[in-house]
Queue: 2 jobs
Job 1
Amino acid sequence: MKRLLTGKLFGILIPLIAIFFGFLAGAIVMLFSGNNPIDAYVALISGIFGDIYYFGETLQRMTPLIFSGLAVAFAFRAGLLNIGVEGQLMVGWFAAVVVGFAIELPMIIHLPLAILAGALAGALWGTVPGYLKATLEVHEVIVTIMMNYIAMHVVNHFIRNNFLESGQRTEFVSPSASLASDFLSGLTDFSRLHWGFFIAIAACFLMWFILWKTKRGFEYRSVGYNKNASLYAGMNVKANIVSSMAISGAFAGVGGAMVGLGTYRYVEIFSSFTNLGFDGIAVALLGNSNALGIFFSAFLFGGLKEGAGNMQAQAGIAPEVVEIIIAMIIFFVASSYLIRWIYSKVQPNKKEGK
Amino acid sequence: MEYVIEMNGIRKEFPGIVANDNITLQVKQGEIHALLGENGAGKSTLMNVLFGLYQPEKGEIKVRGEKVNVTDPNVANRLGIGMVHQHFMLVQKFTVTENIILGSEPKKGMSIDIRKAAQDVAEISDRYGLRVDPNSKIEDISVGMQQRAEILKTLYRGANILIFDEPTAALTPQEIKELIQIMRNLINEGKSIILITHKLKEILEVADRCTVIRRGKGIGTVDVSESDQTSLAEMMVGREISFEVEKGPPKPGEAILSVKGLTVEDVRGIDMVDQLDLEVRSGEILGIAGVDGNGQTELVEALTGLREAKSGTVTLSGEDISGKKPRKVTEAGVSHIPSDRHKHGLVLEFTIGENMMLQTYYQKPYTRNGILDYGKMYKKAEELMEEYDVRTPSSMTLARSLSGGNQQKAIIAREVDRSPKLIIAAQPTRGLDVGAIEFIHKKLVEERDKGRGVLLVSLEMDEVLNVSDRIAVIYEGKIVDIVDAKETNENELGLLMAGGKREAGETST
Amino acid sequence: ACGNDNNDNATPVNEGNNNEGNNNVENNVDNADNNNDNNEGNEATGDGEGFSSKMVTDVGGVDDRSFNESAWAGLTMFGEDYPGAEVDYLQSSDSSDYAPNLNRLARDGTDITFGIGFLMEDEIRDVAGQNPDQNFAIVDTVVTDEDGNMIDNVANITFAEHEGSFLVGVIAAMHTETNEVGFIGGVESELIKKFESGFKAGVHSVDPDIEIATQYAQDFNDASLGQQIADGMYAGGADIIYHAAGGTGNGLFTEAIDRRESGEEVWAIGVDQDQALTEGEWSEGNVILTSMVKRVDQSVYQVSEDTMNGNFPGGEVLEFALEDEGVGFAETRDNVSDEAIEAANDYRDQIINGDIEVPQTDDEYDEWYDSL
Amino acid sequence: MELFLAVLYLIVPAAMIAATPLLLTAMGGLFSERAGIVNIGLEGLMVMGAFAGIVGTLMFEGMGMGAWSPWLGILFAALLGGIFSMFHAVASISLKADQIVSGVALNFLATGLTVFLVREIFERGQTDTISSRLFRTNVPLLSDIPIIGQMFFTRVYLTTWVAFLLVLVVWYVVFKTPFGLRLRSVGEHPMAADTMGINVNRMKYIGVGLSGVFGGMGGAVFAITAAGNFAGGTITGQGFMALAVLIFGKWHPFGAFGAAIFFGFAQALSVTAQQIPGLQDVPQVFMLILPYVLTILALAGLVGKATPPAALNTNYDKGSR
Ligand SMILES: Nc1ncnc2c1ncn2[C@@H]1O[C@H](COP(=O)(O)OP(=O)(O)OP(=O)(O)O)[C@@H](O)[C@H]1O
Ligand SMILES: Nc1ncnc2c1ncn2[C@@H]1O[C@H](COP(=O)(O)OP(=O)(O)OP(=O)(O)O)[C@@H](O)[C@H]1O
Ligand SMILES: [Mg+2]
Ligand SMILES: [Mg+2]
């Protein structure tokens, strides 16, 4: 059964079918609550594609999701479950913004430096669980969960005591460290689309490249699948665990930097988690932990969340319905076995022919 | 007819393959019936059908003449069929008793009556001479004892038809002897046994009749008393097989590996290798013989840099490699064929091509400036697969879906191709059929003849005797003696392995 | 709950350009011009026909039993009084929804769009900049452009929470038996500091020796944390605790009810709305002594109405204070003694005529306390 | 000394109360993970439990059950949690879904569905507040023991002691009964269990179902004792903490008990310390991160490696090996 239907085509078909089922489930929920699903979905679609502004916002929204998805997926490929993307993203956001306003430099240095600061902060936050896992075999899931809370409180502490500007936030990053783009914004009718979107695309490429084209990536995947055999093959398993968590954290940190330098251009006291990191788990898994898949699943996530606003405005559908749809899509993607099974029942001659 | 088991015209398909094609197997009451076939011939599948784990597409099963429908292992249990699986079905963290009673636990109120259970187990193990400690955890006991626990599981359920799927693959010679005795006891108690093994000698020793299958098809059933090794092997493979390892005399050169005063602890801090000295010369195969658990694993791990030695030195052609990391040891010229190919030898989710490059991926020309060249990697892997006869649909096939023999060939190709100075081969033929074994032994001898040193660690007495030039016997972490392979025999080795001493004057280094 | 007889209650003050609020003549002149521009073409009829007033909620949603709900109540009331006017809201699931939601309303040509909550400050600034022909209003903060100037198409609605908190502080001080009271804050910020400072000043106005325990949960949503903090404060001797901590405050009520049931005489003070209407019940009454109420409903109603009538207070800071009845203590007064009410009313008058200036920050409070 | 005791009298019950929902939920996680199914969906189960606990209490109040309502509400939450967990069970057992993915989906579904239902039922984003509550009580007799009594048996919720008793029950069931042996065997070596005639999938369904029952109770206890009502933010992260407690406790009921108490203690300390003279001047951030840092330190220092059930996070497929 296992390798029965693993054609390329099926790889694409399954998510599409899952998305269809997800929407079907959402429609049932809406019917149950006395709403018209067709109106709702028309509103949803036009809330993504109906106006260039919404489309721009969708792309803006998916930017950090791509990063958090990449972060989760990268660790996953190396055999680690990184639930700490949330915290890594927060510290990255914070560090990038602080570098963004605290120093004066020409843009060509300042912007990369601020992004780098985000990457380093995220990497640092990822290294702690990586190191504990590698040296003391402490389960990374616990440490990353704890590190999320620590990140939130520590960042808030520094904002509150060192960088508070107005109300809840720091000052704005200087233009030389800003990713915001009048051009992109103008192109999309004032959406907050910024250059970070293209950096995110580059990051997808980078993740694919690291994992599949470099020596290190080969080792990460090898360690992820089988630590023992990797050790026997002479790989430094501990170093690989630590550095894969660092890279994962760096992806998350840069994701935070994108939000900090592009969307908001400041960082404010976090009164709760951003959820960007937790959503990353779903984005990564929905995207099957591969770069292209993550890009599309981030688009789906970003689009659904953006379109939810229009569904609410035009069709009066509570935004929670979108969450239900997302959940059902994830279920159906995860249960692709079901889809394969149905498929094999529907087309029995195909099976015989093999 | 007094058949206890009749399987007629069994057909079992897996996607893309017919594992059993119209196979017939008839087992008489009170006999040991051997089932023989190459790796992947369909033996385990047939037995799993009998035991109710798989449902056949065609065919009928009769137990004691009655047609039955074995839908799941519970049905098999009720019919008195028990199975000792090829890969042990034991829960590592449970005790022997817990494993045995699992699924039919004696109860006292709502709890398990663990006392009664232990008593029952002790009673059965006494009756059949199956020595076990009912209260130890599986993960703490030897493979032999684990197997006895497996057998007890079936007996506890009152099985009188027992299936043994490759029971001897992982046992020491001593344990094999005990097992054979146990099987005889069982027959005397009126049970019937189906025995799967690749070791023809064992079949000849204990079995009454033997059914041979090849690529899913039944070839026939013979009386063992009218057969010999050659005829059985031919039936199974369809060609002639040589059992003697063909090799010329060794031309030993200077020492390649020399180990001095090596002491290695295991995780518990016990010295498993204790002040050990050893030398392997170029152009010779040095076999390490010993009962499992006498420090072989720790020795190999220390030599290959996987485990840190407490003291002592290891030199390779004069270069001190003690305390070096695995990669450095490899680069110094040591190759390692690990004993557990799934756990240590392969990344099963990688393609077979990637697996073949697991030791060299980082070197030029496969990696330049940290960037992999997959084209070159696969080209190389395909060359190797060609040369070492690794049979798979393509180099992109996942390692998991290769048969054991082909997996092992891939590892050998990978390790040997690097032109190492020293090859450490740990149990290189475990679980393989005679064809594959022949191939691997031939390769090791070839490498010897190219002037390499080969350190062969094996629990298989035949293998050590046939392949090695010299044999070092390890006992409690020390080399107790080194003998010339041509001048020793099974009995002498067995004695040494048990810690005995050779009579003086027979030395030949 | 919202009368429409208080159209001119709010006092426009100018807080821009660092000159502490009072005189605003110049700005008003500018704004007047602007307002006319803005309202050209959508002059509403008497019943509000053709006028639309909508809001974007904070993550709490329009039924958060707090300021979002209050704001929506004001809009609903406005819609009832002017049936021709269109009122609506958009709910934000998280902070990333603010900008798109505000934009969505602006794009629909909404005449006035309210951003509820100071968290929307920057989004309002951007969206207002991008839609200069639309009117916006923000609740709980003041939005300025990058140079610190007021923005012509944004009205700023603030409340004198410190003044309201002062009064409940007075009531607490009048009621405490143990001479110790407490304050639980949510996530520490400038806004919540106003509650704290005002409350402490109110307590100490009555009796400077009363001890005040304060603690920030640094979370607006963790009831169990709120309960633990309250437990500690009550155990430490406080018998009345005031909260400005949203959902965390539920834990305070839980703890107060619990202690009540076991015979302890403790009280809690609610915030934003008359919380005794929905919370605090125990078997023999209600543990909520009083609540500091903040009339967001009234402010939203009023700004909508003004805008409809062509008087959009763009570029202004409207501070709804005690004297406008924009803040105060709750209508439910069953548990409050007459003396306390009297004292509170007395202080209220003093604050209104300027005899008392209530501190809003830690520094102002320290200064104020030293001057006692 | 007196102060020290006074602090302990405050912290210990607080720790026990804080530990209760985590502990209950971790017991749920234990059943599912011992059966080999990773349960990252504990968060969602707690959300569902909190929702059902409050809605159930309100419902039973309406039916005139009075003081029994919260208890019935907790049972209702257990039931609903069990039903809700079947999503995870069907996906990860029958449909062979990746267990982590399915758990993540469960979390999404729980938040979406509960808030949606709250809107449908109450026409607002949060439920009404329950009026019949659970109160802290002194455990009769035991609370009279000097020092110990005041520390452990005074002003605690009955739910806490019920939860502690349930830990004992869980231990007994998992380690002393045939059911427990079978459950564990399925999580360690499903094929072995299968050959012994154990219905592997049924055991897994039961394991996941019990995780729903206990996770539901955990969420309900939290909502009923602390919050008093339910909204989208009532449960934020407690389920993940419970997962951490389970792993910290090495998948053992007593271990999880220790871990939950440890965490509750650290949290109570962090809250209370801010009201203790001397500690008041320590910057608050140190107190806020204390529970998390202590947990990491404890793991790194004392507990170290935890070995999960051997077959955790693998799908059992008869046909494969
Ligand atoms: N679970 C399975 N899924 C798919 N194919 C299988 C499965 N199990 C067995 N097969 C197929 O059935 C054939 C027979 O396998 P089986 O395990 O019965 O061989 P065997 O004779 O026991 O080999 P060995 O001597 O190595 O144990 C294999 O070649 C394989 O192709
Ligand atoms: N799950 C599977 N799906 C498809 N084919 C399989 C599967 N498992 C095994 N095979 C096929 O079965 C054949 C033999 O497998 P099998 O595991 O019996 O070999 P083996 O020599 O017994 O290995 P081992 O020594 O590990 O027991 C191979 O050709 C392999 O392609
Ligand atoms: Mg095999
Ligand atoms: Mg087999």
Job 2
Amino acid sequence: DPALIFDLGGKFDKSFNESAYNGAQRWADETGGKYLEIELQSEAQREQALRRFAEAGANPVITTGFAMSDPIAQVAPDYPDTIFVTIDGWVPDQENVLTIGFAEHEGSYLVGMMAAMASKSGTVGFIGGMDVPLIRKFACGYAQGVKAVNPDATVISNMTGTTPAAWNDPVKGSELTKAQISQGADVVFAAAGGTGVGVLQTAADEGILSVGVDSNQNPLHPGKVLTSMLKRVDVAVYDIMKAGDDVKPGFRAMSLADEGVDYALDENNAALVSDDMKAKVDAAKASIVDGSTAVHDYTSDDSCPALSF
Amino acid sequence: MTADDTSGRQETAAPAIELKGISKAFGPVQANKDISIRVMPGTIHGIIGENGAGKSTLMSILYGFYKADKGEIFISGQKTEIPDSQAAIAAGIGMVFQHFKLVENFTVLENIILGAEDGGLLKPSLSKARKTLLELEHEYGLNVDPDAVIEDLGVGMQQRVEILKALYRQADILILDEPTGVLTPAEADQLFRILDRLRAEGKTIILITHKLREIMEATDTVSVMRRGEMTATVKTADTSPAELAELMVGRKVLLRVDKTPATPGDVILDIKGLRVVDDAGVERVKGIDLQVRAGEIVGIAGVAGNGQSELLEVLGGYADGTGEIRVSGQPLDLAGKRADGRSRRARGIAHVPEDRQREGLIMDFSAWENTAFGYHRDPSYQSGVLLNNAAIRSDTEAKMQRFDVRPPNPALAAKNFSGGNQQKIVLAREIERNPDLLLIGQPTRGVDIGAIEFIHQQIVALRDKGKAILLVSVELEEILALADRVAVMFDGHIMGERQSAETDEKELGLLMAGVGS
Amino acid sequence: MDFLTLIQLLDSTVRLATPLLLACLAGLFSERAGIFDIGLEGKMLAAAFFSAAIAALTGSVWLGLLAGIAASMGFSLLHGLASITFRGNQLISGVAINFLAAGLTVLIAQDWFSQGGRTPSLMGGARFEPITLPFAENLGTVPFLGPIYAELISGHSILVYIAFLTVPLTWWILFRTRFGLRLRAVGENPAAVDTAGVSVVGLRYAAVMICGMLCGIAGAYLSTALQAGFVKDMSAGRGFIALAALIFAKWRPWHALYATLLFGLFGALETRPDVIQAIFGIKVQGALLGALPYVMTVIILAGFVGKAVPPRAGGEPYVKER
Amino acid sequence: MEVMPKWAEVILVPLISLLLAAILSALVIMAIGEDPIAAVQLMVTGALGSTYGWGYTLYYATNFLFTGLAVSVAFHAGLFNIGGEGQAMLGGLGVALMCLLIPWPHWTLALIGASAGAALFGAAWAAIPAYLQAKRGSHIVITTIMFNFIAAALLNYLLVNVMRPQGSMDPASARFPEAVHLPTLHDLLAPIGISFSKAAPANVTFLIAVLACVLVWFLLWRTWLGYEIRSYGKSEPAAKYAGISPTAITMIAMLISGGLAGMMAINNVMGEAERLVLNAVEGAGFIGIAVALMGRSHPFGVFLAAVLFGFLYQGGAELALWTNIPRELIVVIQALVILFTGALDNMVRMPLERLFLMTRRGSG
Ligand SMILES: Nc1ncnc2c1ncn2[C@@H]1O[C@H](COP(=O)(O)OP(=O)(O)OP(=O)(O)O)[C@@H](O)[C@H]1O
Ligand SMILES: Nc1ncnc2c1ncn2[C@@H]1O[C@H](COP(=O)(O)OP(=O)(O)OP(=O)(O)O)[C@@H](O)[C@H]1O
Ligand SMILES: [Mg+2]
Ligand SMILES: [Mg+2]
């Protein structure tokens, strides 16, 4: 059986853990299969869970979150017959590891473009959870997209906090949104887990547009969420579970080209996205896919051309 | 309330209070054993007994503070259940506890109405109480500023508040638990005048005290308690102090300090121009000069709060002062790093503090830990970097033996000893150090007469070894009996010095009031 | 910094201060009666959940509020049982309540709604909407005072006004009523209250229950007024900050208002790095910006606030017979 | 003078309390549709049934031992140190700097160096609140809460912007060099012929924690410094009378407390993660409060309480691994244990006392 290890945020983080859970659940529902799972509670459990699942014969062992890279690098050599999958992590030179890398910056770029096009004030906002490189990657891609549409646009970026509470503080998310509104922002993009709930809510209440993240959050406030930056962790998990023992180690990119990231368009935001917007974004998407537009990845060199942290 | 309606009640034959077969245990401790007592209306009934005899417990039961395990209570012949203080108050009982039950940061008025308010809002209650208070003050001469905050008041005043509290609740029966333990003679006299007045009005008063003189002077009947039992009840007129003392301790007690005239030697303590300013910025000691010689006891008399405590604190090293103090000729630091208790002890100064429970002892520590208190860095208590607990324990055992501390169990926590025995632990610790100078504050406060006798003997014995002793006490009687020379403090000044053989309470009393030379 | 920015900052201050204020006053009642309460956080969290859950189920935010208050008071009862009836350690009880609330809210939420420990989003009557005070729209154009009235004073949820009114009410109860006198007395010297014929246990339970009620409102404010639903751990340490504010305020109601407004202001400033940059002239790095409120608090405490003396009988169970 | 024999107080009361907590937990488990007996079995075998389980139980216990001792020492001085969390974070920073900046030849030397670094940084983080308490009267409860937040912000800044290896996604320091890896219990016990799970993270730090327990006990009850700390904690006026400096004791007790909290980092940062991660302390500072309170601030009590919490953590992990019991349930179980053993213990003690008094009266 496959096993799935959720990162500290827990499987219901309204973010990528939850997305992974949904993928696994879809696989279980469709195939009637069973999988092992654990929601980590502490750092020490990372290695523990990997080893226990590997010893119990689970294969593949799927993990979410960049923080699993290091433990996998430690554990994987001890269980050469098990395939370890890291989503968001980076474990080079390890034969039995499948690394799945999402190009969040590309997806963020697209929603950044849409935000800039939807903005009337020329000011858009970004609200992150904790200030970690992954979140900066989102912010940086987003800012590039904004500037691509409107080089004079202002991008206001805030992080919620410095403790894990930053992922579950919708109240703070609301206040940050209001603060950004008072600075003129009329579209905000939240990449902040549970905090984002507050961002989207406040944006809807205050009559500005918001951008959801990870899963399609458009239905949360129909007609008020401009779009969502999709990160198809569910697809990745579903595919891996479906492949089961046949899953191949190595690297699997989940970029725009692979439909690993995308922007969401459905009946909830159809009225918000004009044909012109859609055309421009799709054009940009095509050009990113064919390589003619390069979106800078913050984590590649810890710098961002469009935003300073 | 007028004299008319009380006089009628005086004629009823039923006792104001009758307790039958009261027993009370605190865990394994049997504090009261099958106690019965009758108190007639319009009388003052004294209760005496050693520390821990169960006096306070019995009265607390009557007041509904504790619940008796067994026994019945009759008020004016009527069987009455007193499950809580509310019921006691309703039955007309008021009590002034040994440790006052006042809210320190409330005003007098607030304390008085607490629990006896009229209606939900404070304003009407306060103004009504203010009026009633004025009447009561007028009637009994109990003057207190209704707006003063309790913690700013002296103990004498606080006690008045307690009495007023009881009177405000229209108590007919007033229990006073060791009311004079903390009072000056003048204050005590005033208290007894008030009690007389109350008795004349037909109120019934129960008075717990360790002072036989007070029993003899104030009470109509007296009961003696020993180890939880009521051993005797007699008419005061039919007994004598010596008999009472024997009844209570179970042996003959010397009621007078037995000492030879002093033979003073060199000056040990020499104070010149000492001034002390307290934390609140008030100058409490305003430039005093004083000498204590080897082989003499100098007593500092004075109403509490006239700078005696601050004097002791500076000498003991835990308050800062200015001026000059020499001990055995060497100057003493009055501020800074070397002005602390440890340095003082190193200089041969021992100190029995005024408040043993607050300063002298750590109540949760065992007796042996308390024996090391202040001397815990003494080389004889160390072995290497560690404390030599065995040495401290055996030292404690020896000291407990010599000072007759009961029970002689070094492992018992200080809080489990009675007040008198707590005081003996402190004394043993300080006196046995054989200091050059002993500072001693209120040596016998709240201590029973058996223990007083012993404590006085120890102090005199130390003097006879040629040591200098500075004694601070609010008990004039004690000062006169113990000290060779008396200095009286008033408002931070020394009002005068007298040889104790050549003065009397009256003269000292005047000095204490700030009148005189 | 222009005037409108200031108004926005203060507006945000008010919103952020409100839950702190309610929790702080809650703690004030409890601690003034001599019962320490580090379980404010847990009670707030429980109330946040139950008010949102019941509001979601019934569609009525008022029923939600009642449920939140009831839940919080339930935890208060537990705290009372441990620290008053059974004379247990008040700090431990508080710690346990915080854990219990953190676990139970998510467990129950998952059981009821299967939305990953969240409640559904509240809509319409299931939420406290901002109230527009009379004439706010017309007066908004009056210079200076107009925006203050229209933007800052008007436009908050009813719970904000309740919270602010609770300050004078608390002051009045504590210092002007019989109940307040007894409550303060029982926190200073329970023996005095006992010998005055008043039940110590009764008073302390009353105080603890009031504490529960106010924490309940604080929690409900988080999930049904500021937010439209419950998210796990959404109290996010506010109970502890309220506790700090309580000590800061030296257990006094008006000071509690000032202290929580100060914390609210710090929180609001944190959302506006641009304003801080304008004031101090330097760009503060994001993470360090987050530390600013706490650093400021320490500086103010060390520099301006003297020693805080808690109610004298605080934290100790009332034991007559050892 | 005591009502109950000592064994009843020390063993019976906690045991019955624990039982009550267990019964209530079982009810909660049943309420969410799981089998409580199976759950308990899983927890016990998972946490205590193998050297592997013990290895994790003791690993967690080590963390709680340090933070529990830290809170206890401060408690004895009458100070409520809520800042264990921040002090342990800073301790981690000390360990990381020591391990990364100095090329240690052998783990023993590294351990000494890292312990010193951890204690120093932890103590330094406690020093400021202590100084403000002693000199300015700023309430230590507020300042230590504030310092927890400040520590989190500081660490976040350092790990994201300064200490993170270039290009790494993880806000964590670089891995420590091989030379500073601490031996696990497996490594320590293998030479003497005892086989211990290789996988478990319990390491030599556990022994240091036990040693710390003993030392703290010696400090508090066998040295004059401990005597002064306890005296000051019981009564400030009495301490002054005895010549004990309130300022000095406040500072010293908090420095020791902070140092102990900081020392936790040699277990989790140096022993387990072998690098400094953002959320390394994960609430152990707060668990330390519960551990100290439940252990009645006595090192031996702290030891037992720490092991109990280690058991709950590891048992909880096993539950999470093999069942669908959500992790919040484990939090609830912990809460119930804290509640019953720590706060509602008199609920058990009172009737027991009455029982013992009755039997005593009956026989005497
Ligand atoms: N609240 C209590 N809990 C447990 N034991 C108590 C309590 N109060 C008193 N005792 C014990 O009961 C006994 C009687 O104490 P009580 O206070 O009645 O003595 P007392 O005669 O008033 O003594 P003193 O003259 O010192 O005031 C003592 O052994 C005392 O230690
Ligand atoms: N209605 C009010 N409006 C504004 N400020 C007030 C009001 N009432 C009191 N204050 C101020 O608030 C501060 C605190 O008042 P509060 O009643 O909380 O405590 P207090 O009465 O001073 O303290 P305590 O009764 O504990 O000694 C005081 O400085 C007081 O002047
Ligand atoms: Mg007594
Ligand atoms: Mg006032």
